[in-house]
Design goal:
Blueprint: H1 6-21, H2 25-45, E1 50-52, H3 64-73, E2 76-82, E3 88-92, E4 98-100, E5 106-108, E6 123-127, E7 130-132, E8 137-138, H4 144-150, E9 158-161, E10 167-168, E11 182-184, E12 189-191
Parallel strand pairs: 1-2, 1-6, 6-9, 7-10, 9-11
Antiparallel strand pairs: 2-3, 4-5, 7-8, 11-12
Helix pairs in contact: 2-3
Length: 197
């Protein structure tokens, strides 16, 4: 029977959350342009006409510049809305309308689309606490994205967005943890050979 990695994951999440809280607004602003630039280049490289992304919270790498660009380019962007049953509904990004969601995270305001709406996107951009060089992603512990990615038959490329210091040598992985194909940081885009088994 595999070891329970939950305590190890909780400790790592707490450490990373504290690091993010200690970033100054100047440091945070300095990373936003790099994240936007790299996300745009990534979307262009896959010829994305539709993407799924998320509204970044204050402590997260900023995805809002990318979402503004996608809107200007006519790229359809789906944003997640957490449900109490552990699934994600989606809404099409439309302007700056948002509200506080189930776990205190920003969520879009708009028509709800079913969890299967993500099946039509060309690129998936997910939040993460950290990733490792094998493509193992550590989320924030609720399993929404692992469940979503694990249920997709033809999953498009999946990229996590993290700060540079959150690309680690190794991240604990349990059976349900879904890998990512790459990571976008303020200074680089990394591609991994994701093991989806």
């Amino acid at each position: 029977m595999p070891a329970d990695l939950s305590p190890q994951k909780r400790a790592l999440r707490a450490e990373l959350r504290e690091r993010r809280r200690n970033f100054t607004s100047t440091e945070r602003s300095a990373t936003a342009a790099g994240i936007t630039e790299r996300l745009i280049a990534l979307a262009q490289s896959v010829g994305a006409k539709s993407v799924s992304c998320y509204l970044s919270a204050t402590d997260e790498p900023d995805t809002r510049g990318f979402l503004r660009w996608a809107d200007e380019q006519g790229i359809r962007a789906l944003l997640p809305i957490a449900r109490v049953d552990g699934l994600l509904d989606w809404a099409i990004a439309a302007g700056d309308d948002e509200e506080v969601g189930l776990f205190g995270m920003p969520e879009p305001v708009g028509e709800l689309l079913a969890p299967t709406a993500i099946n039509d996107v060309d690129l998936i951009i997910v939040p993460a606490a950290c990733v490792d060089k094998r493509g193992v992603r550590l989320g924030w512990g609720r399993g929404y994205f692992d469940k979503t990615l694990g249920s997709m038959e033809n999953c498009p490329p999946v990229y996590a967005v993290v700060f540079d210091t959150e690309v680690l040598d190794e991240v604990p992985r349990e059976r349900h943890d879904q890998p990512v194909d790459g990571a976008v940081t303020p200074t680089r885009t990394l591609r991994f050979t994701a093991d989806r088994t």
